[in-house]
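Hello, quick one for you while I still have it in my head. I'm working through a protein record and want to make sense of it properly. Would you mind checking whether the tokens look sensible for this chain? I owe you a coffee for this, so here goes:
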Amino acid sequence: MRFENTGIENQTAELSRLDDLMEELGFVRAGQWDYERVTYDRKFEIKNDVYYLRVQGYAIEGDVDSRYALIKLLTPILGKYYYPHGVEYGEDENFPSSLVSQCQNILAQVKEGLTKIQNA
């Protein structure tokens, strides 16, 4: 499921500040990066099902492994984990409405945090 028009897509932020913001909001970057891309995931467990809210971005300046990178964010997505295949993000997936609402609230907090970062 794609979360369109959140105000996050196409926003830019310096990587270290973005890492701090996303960690504060419960996202993990872990090893999910390469020199040009980053992926932040937030895990949800609901009634034996596992879901991931994912925010991805790519470097428009610098490298992710360097001291500096400017990251441009993409449209956030929500997926459901299926063992042993992985996470499915298809539009035909059904997500609990309470989860979708919670994700929308979290993404609003991400947008607010990005605004603070950019105005600092």
Summary: The two ends are 32 Å apart (CA to CA). The chain has two helices and six strands. The chain has a mean pLDDT of 92. Helices lie at 15-24, 97-119.
